[in-house]
Amino acid sequence: MILFIIILLLIIYFIFSDLVPIIKKKQGKIFWIYTTVLSIALILNVLILVNYKIPIISVALKKLLGVFLELEQ
Amino acid sequence: MKKEIISSKQGVTLITMFLIGSALVINSGTEAGKDAWIAMLLGMIMVIPMLFVYSRLIKVYPGRDLYDLQKLLFGKVIGSITSIFFILFTLHLGAMILRNFSEFIQAVSFPETPQFFTLILMGTLCICGTKCGIEVLARWSSFVFPIIFIVVASLVIFSIPAAELTNIKPILYNGIKPVIQSSFSIFAYPFAEVTLFTMVFNSLNNKKNTFRIFLIGTLIAGIMLTVVAIRNIAVLGPETIDSYYFPAYNAVSVISIGNFFDRFEILVAIMFVVSGFLKATICLYTASKGFSKLFNVDCYSEFAAPLGIIMFTMASFVYENLMEMFQWAGTIYKYYSFPFLVLMPIIILIFAEVKSRRERGKGAQIKPQKT
User: Fold this and answer.
1) Domain contains A48
2) Which among A31, A57, B82, B316 is least surrounded, fewest beta carbons within 10 Å?
3) Would you say residue B80 has pLDDT above 80?
């Protein structure tokens, strides 16, 4: 929980340091891209917080590569 | 967007620091055993033709990086798709480096501290580094590199009394096959990872000697890594070295000067933090740059924060555990990275050469793009 709060504080800090100037400059395109990516980051952290078992990237890639190459599993 | 310029010397230090990054502590190519140093040299030699490809990619369309070239050569749709793959690769690479770092910290210093905490701290530092820009990173690396070089050299010299040169003999006792297999792993990690600089070096002030910059940087890093590999084998011995996850750290721990100065392994940890930070930051920088080019946005630094948060969050589920991390680095990574480090750069270069020759044939001049 503490780690999630740290992440949340970090996100709030970046909203003030990055997103507010973007809104002031009326850069709509950057605003939407920034908000989307930041939301993905937040969702990933919420998933980790609720102990959702996110697939391990190396395991998934190993399986994928195993389809093409004969790798030791 | 502010124009960023880096000098040739800064380019060399950036490449050297990037290559020694995590490779100084985390060895790949352990299959070669006591001949790991030969595999290291072989991996370094194998990457030289690729350095030519990378430097040519920068020169063929001056001022354009790998992302620009993909859009220019493959068109908007296919170019964007390949760019997305490169962005994901650089983000994944950055996450792997951060995970190496957090695993190392947990194993040697803070076994009770959650790894995610280390990842947050390191990731935030990478975000700040990316926001500062490549010029600041280059200046920082040219300041830090001499210190790292002196520390590595001193640690090697101080380990000489504990080293047994008989440990590296007999040379090629198990034949050349394991050495060649290891050299492929070493080629992929760390040497061919300099591909990322094709997305960085459009900021170079002198693009004429790009190959020289790549070559000198790789040679310095390669020689440093080889010397460290010889030191590790000579100090720990071929049987013991396999039982350590971080042999460089353990090899240095035996140093004791006059039974008074010891615990030098902290210097290895500091070196790892410093060079690992640079490597992860370069990954985040290239990912942010790719992202800004994908959406035709001028300033890449705007995306450093959200991508950085994704990068260090990704680092927490990039591997299951420490053992898997080493297995990935030693056996899987070379296959996984091959399309990004070798195949795609070669394909892009072929397309770029053909297109630029056609344009020259038509009499049109290739205008350098403003960076």
Assistant:
1) yes
2) A31
3) yes
Mean pLDDT of the B97-105 span: 92
ipTM higher than 0.90? yes
Q: How far apart are CA B126 and CA B117, in angstroms?
A: 14
Find the CB nearest B305 among A14, A30, A69.
Answer: A14
By CB atoms closer than 10 A (0-12, 13-18, 19+), residue A16 is exposed
What domains appear along chain B, each with residue ranges and CATH number?
Answer: 8-349 (1.20.1740.10)
Q: How many residues does chain A have?
A: 73
Kindly determine whether residue A10 and residue B120, on different chains, have CB atoms separated by under 8 Å. yes
Of residues A10, A29, A58, nearest to B324 (C-beta): A58
* Total structural domains within chain A: 1
| Distance, C-alpha B364 to centroid of its chain | 37
In a domain, A73, yes or no: no
A12 vs B: CB within 8 A: no
Is there a domain that residue A15 lies in? yes
Tens-place pLDDT, residues B133-161: 999 999 999 999 999 999 999 999 999 98
Q: Which residues of B touch A48 (CB under 8 A)?
A: 116, 313, 316-317
Q: Residue A44: which domain range?
A: 2-68
